[in-house]
TrEMBL record:
Pfam families: Sugar_tr. Belongs to the major facilitator superfamily. Sugar transporter (TC 2.A.1.1) family. GO terms for molecular function: carbohydrate:proton symporter activity. The chain crosses the membrane at residues 17-41, 53-75, 82-101, 107-129, 141-166, 172-189, 251-270, 290-308, 320-337, 343-362, 374-398, 410-429. Its main location: membrane. InterPro entries: MFS_dom, MFS_sugar_transport-like, MFS_Sugar_Transporters, MFS_trans_sf. Keywords: Membrane, Transmembrane, Transmembrane helix. It comes from the Bacteria. It is found in: Cell membrane. This is MFS transporter. Residues 17-433 form the Major facilitator superfamily (MFS) profile domain. It is a multi-pass membrane protein. One of its GO terms (cellular component) is plasma membrane.
Length: 455
């Protein structure tokens, strides 16, 4: 199985699958970022308090925490196919329903459900993609998923800017509903790609169907008997408990830890980008802070491009360690000098965004490479869930921190959290460059050296 897929030529099928699977990350970036511009008009119309703004900003992230943990386990148990399109339908329905929302709590509930649907897509789509990709393209195209996230974020701020310009503050309903258009687009694309992973099928006693799918999509005929990975043993079903057993404990703690430390700062910056830029002196509630946040999102995306190459040349470990170390510098400088000129502060934010490219492209590459098929989606779901705890806390606490502590202490805390992420990477980041998927997911067994017998 490993050699058939890992050594397969890269074809248009892989490209279509990568685009189809990027729908979840792109919608995540769009849905979480569009609320930043929607709040500009929503706040006065619905008379939102600071607490209301915090709840709306964090609701989708809390939903992702629940959805990631729940649907990751289900994806490993029942397959990648079951929720492959249903989650997009739920996202579209919630986006449309947001247009008619008249209360804070209804918006909070809808965004919570949106978060659950987005989180469901990560373990489904990234596991499906990782289990179909050839070895040489695996790191790049798994990293491409986070590029799609930032593309969605940039698109959200561009759409928000245009709607604010031509529709005024009352356009916030159209902004929240606009995600349904993207849902429909990716729903159509997904109809022409593989619905299930042959690795998962072979491991669950469906080698004939796995061989049929390999022949259909990779144009390689294989004997179903050669695809059976369980060697006649009972099918292994993964569980949350297995992830935290000694075999995989260090790997899951590493994936969850660096992901959490990264996105806690990142999501707060993007969700409340206009408010942060206004704190530096840019006029608030205008096109300047909206386009400024769009530029910040664009640099987050641009930083992923060299990182996608570095993880396959320099390697996964040095890329993430060096990038995390460099991310500390700009937020620390802002924390130490919070009254720096507006343009210099904006430049520091752009530097942070660029250096963040390394961890970004490894957010889903590492969890998909470090765990075997029977717990791969579970690991992706857990890492996503834990990261969203940090993102929700960062998003919820940022407005309070800016109001009560000020810019300096807020960014010093961001620098400290980034430093924790750096230490986690130094401690736990493995190297998986150039390794087959099954090999990368295999944990080396330490065999103690035998003591010499006394003479």
């Amino acid at each position: 199985m490993s050699s058939v897929i890992d050594d397969a030529p890269f074809t248009s099928f892989h490209r279509r699958l990568a685009v189809a699977c990027s729908g979840g990350p792109l919608l995540d970036g769009y849905i979480l970022s569009i609320v930043g511009t929607a709040l500009i008009g929503m706040t006065p119309e619905l008379d939102l308090s600071t607490g209301d703004v915090q709840l709306i900003g964090a609701a989708a992230l809390i939903g992702m925490f629940v959805g990631g943990a729940l649907f990751g386990v289900l994806t490993d148990k029942i397959g990648r196919e079951v929720m492959y399109t249903a989650d997009l339908i739920v996202m579209g329905a919630c986006s449309i329903a947001s247009f008619w929302a008249e209360s804070t709590w209804l918006i909070v509930i809808l965004r919570f459900v949106l978060g659950m649907a987005v989180a469901a897509d990560y373990p489904i789509a990234t596991s499906l993609l990782g289990e179909w990709l050839p070895l040489k393209q695996r790191g790049t195209l798994l990293g491409f998923q986070i590029v799609a996230w930032y593309a969605g974020s940039v698109l959200a701020y561009v759409v928000g800017y245009l709607l604010l310009t031509f529709g005024g503050h009352g356009s916030w309903r159209w902004q929240l509903a606009s995600g349904a258009v993207l849902c429909a687009f990716f729903l159509i694309i997904r109809q022409s790609t593989a619905p299930e992973s042959p690795r998962w099928l072979a491991q669950h006693g469906k080698a004939d169907k796995a061989a049929e799918m390999i022949e259909r999509y990779l144009h390689v005929r294989v004997d179903p008997a050669t695809l059976v990975e369980s060697d006649g043993q009972a099918v292994v079903h993964g569980s949350l408990r297995e992830l935290f057993q000694p075999t995989y404990r260090k790997r899951i703690l590493f994936c969850c830890g660096f992901f959490l430390c990264q996105v806690a700062v990142l999501f707060a910056m993007l969700t409340f980008g206009p408010q942060i830029l206004a704190s530096f002196g840019m006029p608030g509630g205008t096109w300047m802070d909206t386009l400024g946040t769009a530029l910040l999102s664009m640099v987050f995306l641009i930083g992923c491009l060299p990182a996608m190459r570095l993880i396959d040349t320099l390697g996964r470990r040095p890329t993430i360690v060096w990038c995390f170390g460099l991310m500390i510098v700009p937020v620390l400088l802002i924390g130490l000098w919070p009254t720096m000129p507006t343009l210099l502060a904006f430049a520091m934010l752009l530097l942070y965004a660029f250096f963040c490219g390394g961890p970004n492209v490894l957010d889903w590459t590492y969890p998909n490479e470090l765990f075997p098929t029977h717990i791969r989606a579970t690991a992706v779901g857990v890492a996503t869930s834990v990261s969203r705890v940090g993102a929700a806390l960062g998003t919820y606490l940022l407005p309070w921190s800016l109001d009560h502590l000020g810019m300096g202490p807020t960014f010093l805390f961001a620098a400290a959290l980034t430093a924790v992420g750096f230490l986690i990477c130094v401690w736990g980041a493995p190297e998986t460059k150039g390794r087959r998927l099954e090999s990368a997911a295999t944990v080396p067994i330490s065999i103690p050296m035998a003591r010499p017998e006394p003479a």
